[in-house]
Structures are given as structure tokens and as C-alpha cells.
Amino acid sequence: DVKVTQSSRYLVKRTGEKVFLECVQDMDHENMFWYRQDPGLGLRLIYFSYDVKMKEKGDIPEGYSVSREKKERFSLILESASTNQTSMYLCASSFRAGGETQYFGPGTRLLVL
Amino acid sequence: ILNVEQSPQSLHVQEGDSTNFTCSFPSSNFYALHWYRWETAKSPEALFVMTLNGDEKKKGRISATLNTKEGYSYLYIKGSQPEDSATYLCASITYNNNDMRFGAGTRLTVKP
Fold this sequence. Notes:
Distance between the termini of chain A: 37 Å
Mean pLDDT of chain B: 93
Largest sheet of chain B: 6 strands, mixed
Number of helices of chain B: 0
Order of helices and strands of chain A: EEEEEEEEEEE
Largest sheet of chain A: 7 strands, mixed
Number of strands of chain B: 11
Radius of gyration of chain A: 13 Å
Low-confidence stretches of chain A: none
Shape of chain B: globular
Largest interface: A-B, 23 and 26 residues
Order of helices and strands of chain B: EEEEEEEEEEE
Strand content of chain B: over 45%
Strand content of chain A: over 45%
Mean pLDDT of chain A: 93
Number of helices of chain A: 0
Oligomer: heterodimer
Helix content of chain A: under 10%
Structural class of chain B: mainly beta
Number of strands of chain A: 11
Helix content of chain B: under 10%
Low-confidence stretches of chain B: none
Shape of chain A: globular
Radius of gyration of chain B: 13 Å
């Protein structure tokens, strides 16, 4: 079974802090994704990566950056956390892009005070 | 941005009831439609991937249909059980976009 893990289930940070959210997958998937989920909205894509050191902006990349130094690990970075980044963050991976099933981590609920 | 809509937003049913909900998506350049089930405190899990107009998929008491010409998919649950309580997400992919566009989900609560 594919396993996608995220470093924290819950995080509380202060405005202006730098925040790292880590995601690891164990199935040698090429593609990895970061989403945020807010009430009443669908999962919105922040960034995705289709290979090591490659990244593409999603729909809402502002205020975020990503890092993919190893194939299994995809990090989401909030350079200076703001209260409007309080959200549920979900990481996902897939073998290939183009409509393949995505496998999700359990999510990190981030609260920025 | 592709607009994927799900209705209703939430649904409460009694154990044993059958229920269904809808996912609508733009039909132009359609490639695939995914259904996911997301239980509280767990990861979203894939239920179905559907690509062909008229497709019907089934997994136990859950089934889904797809109409790509008019841009909708129905998810049916027969004889709902409390363990079916979850948020059901659909996501659409088009030929000119590799990423999935998710709906906001339908939150189903099944009361014993």
C-alpha cells in the first residue's frame, strides 16, 4: 500500500514565523502535490512537483514555496506565516501526472495566531 | 479555473437509507473524473476513476455513474451505514490540464 506521511497533524505558529510542512511518500512516485482545504472550498492546489528539484505553481502559490531535494520528500514552506494561512494542508503523490489517482497524507491542521 | 461543483454540501440520512449526490464539471476537454472518500482524521482515499461516457463503477454498496456530455457524475450509496459517514470529494481532469480540480465535497452523516 502507498503510504504518504506528513510531519505533523497539528501545528500552532505565530504570525511572521517560518513554517515547514514535510511530506514523505514511500512508493517512488514521480509527482507530489500540496493542497490546502478550507470550509466550503474544494482542495486548492498550491504547488506540485513532477521530479526532483522541479516545481510548478498551482492556483494559489502566493506566500508559499516548496522544495524537492529527494524524490520521496516534498516540503511546503510558509516564508512568513500569516493568519489567512490558517488551514488544513494536504500532501498527495501519484505515479504520473495526467489523471492518475493521487494518494493523500492525513493532513496538517495549521493555526496561525 | 475549472469549476467543479458538488451538491448537496451536506446530507444527513438514517441507517439503511439509500442516498445519492452529484458532481458537476465542465464537459469540454474532459479526461477523467475521480471520486474520493475522506473520513474524519484519515487521509482521502480513492473510490473510483471514470473516463468513459456512460461508465458505471461499483464497490460494494457504493456505485457511481458518469455523463461526460452533460458534465455530471452521481455517487450512490445503497443501505447507508454509520461507517459511510465521510466527506465525498470529486475531482475532474481535462486534457489541457494535468492537475485535478476538486469540488468542495458532500459531507454525509449516517445516523444509527
